[in-house]
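JOB MANIFEST
job_type = single_chain_structure
chain_count = 1
residues = 68
[input]
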Amino acid sequence: MKVANNKLTQYIYDSYAEIKKVTWPTRQETIRLTIAVILISLFIAAFLGALDSMFSFGVEKIITTFHK
């Protein structure tokens, strides 16, 4: 296979060669890792939501205390 000396053509050829070397995850691995990402994301969202609520409550208490 003759490849032109064009940089784009060489890039595409090299990319194709690299993709052939990839070991793709199995369907089961993909499902397991997707569930892990979703659960971790939900945990972090809940944690940050709780922190936001606590800080909001604290700031509100400070403002109402000094605003009287």
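[summary]
Residues 27-67 form the longest helix (41 residues).
The two ends are 82 Å apart (CA to CA).
exit_status = 0
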